[in-house]
Amino acid sequence: MTMETPYGEIVEAWDSLASRGALLGDPRAPEHGGFVPRYAARRDTNHAEIRDGLRKCGFSVHDAGSAGGDLPDLIVGAHGLTFLVEIKGPRGKLSAGQLAFRNEWRGGPVLTVHSLDEALLEIIKRTNTVYGVRHD
Question: pLDDT tens for residues 64-79?
Answer without folding.
Answer: 988 878 999 999 999 9
